[in-house]
Task: structure prediction
Amino acid sequence: MLQYTVKRLFGLLPTLFLVGVLVFLFVHLLPGDPARLAAGPDATPETVALVRHDLGLDQSLPRQFVRFVTGVLHWDFGRSLSTKRPVSVEIGSRFMPTFWLTVWSMAWSVTLGMTIGIVSAVWRNRWPDRLGMTIAVSGISFPAFALGMVLMQVFAVDLGWLPTIGDDTWLHYILPSLTLGAAVAAIMARFTRSSFVEILGDDFIRTARAKGLDERQVIWRHAMRNALIPVVTMMGLQFGFLLGGSIVVEKVFNWPGLGRLLVDAVDMRDYPVIQALVLLFSLEFIVINLVVDVLYGFINPTIRYR
Amino acid sequence: MNDRATLVADVEVIRTPWNEFWRKFKRQKIGVVAGIFVVVLVAIAIAAPWIAPYDAENYFDYDQLNAAPSMAHWFGVDALGRDILSRILMGARISLAAGFVSVAAGAVVGTLLGLVAGYYEGWADRIIMRIADVLFAFPGILLAIGIVAILGGGEANVIVAVAIFSIPTFARLARGTTLGLKRLTFVEAVRSIGATNWTIISRHIFPGTVPAVIVYFSLRIGTSIITAASLSFLGMGAQPPTPEWGAMLDAARADMLTAPHEAIFPALAIFATVLAFNLLGDGLRDALDPRLDRR
Result:
């Protein structure tokens, strides 16, 4: 198991390297001169030259890349162009709200989604299945920002049960995490159902039934473990979806998180912040997929020996 | 002799791939309805400039700002006095074009790369799949935001961004199917009579990847329409006064309390369109995916 984990870890290195190169090159792909962008529109040529030297932009690309990677490893992403504060400080204060929002959304949506999926598979083509799958296909078709607006209007404005914006209490988390998790719950429900339906048609399930096992035991002891294997992979992919979705949801609920920081940074062309956030989001995604891969090895021992 | 000839002809007709597909697909009632809805939507999008009751961008009714739906304005009037129905109809052009063009571009490039990677394996496979892995390392909308940050906002750049993040999905899909197909005896048979690699890929392997690509195509259009609308909602896509559905929802946020209809109709438009593509994709999958045949 350890060997498998280490192997997976090393397998990530080329991807990490390429992601780093892409994020690094991002600044150089931007239209215009990054030094001028950093110095501001009114800067004299001398100031621009000074800033260029300060940021190391007068060095060769490989040297700049080394400088960039060294900075990242020391948690140094430069300074924000709009607030002049270090990017790491900007990100640090925004990290936890987004983290908890993502975690809560994941928790409820996976639980509900898998439950709906299993119920639909067991009662396939009967009313629980039809109801569940109707809700699920609607869930993947309704854009998160529209759902957020509807939820806020109904539960916060009309009924007044929940707060509208901010992240002060746990009550503030309810609407944003419902909004963010809805599509994931729907995807998980559809995926769990098809995975279960496939497994329930397998020979070993027929054997289990033939030897007279109780249907509940067939589903919980025999089908569950095998059907969960692809579901776990799907869960990892959904985390990326949630990270992306949080960008939109945070705008709707004015959430003080990383997503809103990114949207504001794109508006202000604050490239050091954009660069750091893109790197951070993809690192999170890569780490989560690694965790999923390792979990996968736990559930399905055959995969470890490939 | 004559009878026998017509009999053979009948059998031939039934066994064309198109007939075979139609025989299976027409059993998917919901999928057929969704397909008809999509066709109607496309017709509406094409005819929008002629059937829209008002000019979507340049008609302003200053006496009816934020007015609720009425006989004159079926979907009501927005904060600037523009007719919402006309804007929704024109918006269908934008959303459908964004969804279709971006996914088509992504599908063509991705499928080609997947075919090459799966057929030749070796270094081509490693390079292509490594790039796909890197693109997969960015959550979809984040990649799109990064691309928009480089290219600048606007609808055309959003389409490019969405196309790029569709590529790896299609590449993986086509590669997987190709890997399976090229080991089958019929491919070996074609190779042994001297067919070139290009002939084998284009005439014998590519057709095998088509069903999976079609299913994904339809499902992907739904996702892409939502992504494009999300980017507009974030202010990075279509710019005002363009009647883009996501941008309309963003504009409606200010007047949610007094004029909820300004948000409801664009939201319903996105929902109905994406739902139709998803249901069509589900129907196509059930009709085309042989794995599900044994149910």
Chain B has eleven helices and no strands.
